[in-house]
Design goal:
Blueprint (H helix, E strand, L loop, with lengths): L2 H20 L8 E9 L5 E9 L2 H13 L1 H11 L7 E6 L2 H22 L1
Parallel strand pairs: 2-3
Antiparallel strand pairs: 1-2
Helix pairs in contact: 1-3
Length: about 120
């Protein structure tokens, strides 16, 4: 990524977080955090990775709610981030946190087993 796409991605991440936390009034959205934004080189597409505190159902409900609010989010984003073309938004669940927790749990279990077995 270039410095420009990195700056645009970070601006989009910050503004979307603010819009979601302060202005989006959809009860389907749980405690959501935008973890990463990937912007295409031409700045016409943005993949928004997000995590949700909660179970699998809450994650999928949040994904559906974000997709329902996509038009509103783009309009609000356009007011805050000045670009020639406002990127299309694609929301994806960020599974990396779950994977890190799973690995951490496995390592902890192995450590405990090693302590018990001597």
């Amino acid at each position: 990524m270039s410095l420009r796409t990195d700056r645009v991605a970070e601006a989009i991440r910050e503004e979307l977080m603010d819009i979601i936390q302060r202005e989006l009034k959809d009860p389907g959205i749980g405690l959501t955090s935008i973890t990463h934004v990937q912007v295409s080189g031409d700045l016409r597409h943005a993949t928004i990775l997000f995590s949700v505190l909660g179970d699998e159902e809450e994650r999928w409900l949040s994904l559906e709610a974000l997709n329902r609010a996509k038009k509103f989010l783009r309009l609000e984003l356009g007011k805050r981030v000045k670009l020639r073309f406002l990127p299309e938004l694609l929301f994806k669940l960020d599974e990396s946190l779950d994977e890190r927790l799973r690995i951490s749990k496995i390592l902890h279990e192995l450590e405990e087993k090693e302590k018990r077995d001597g």
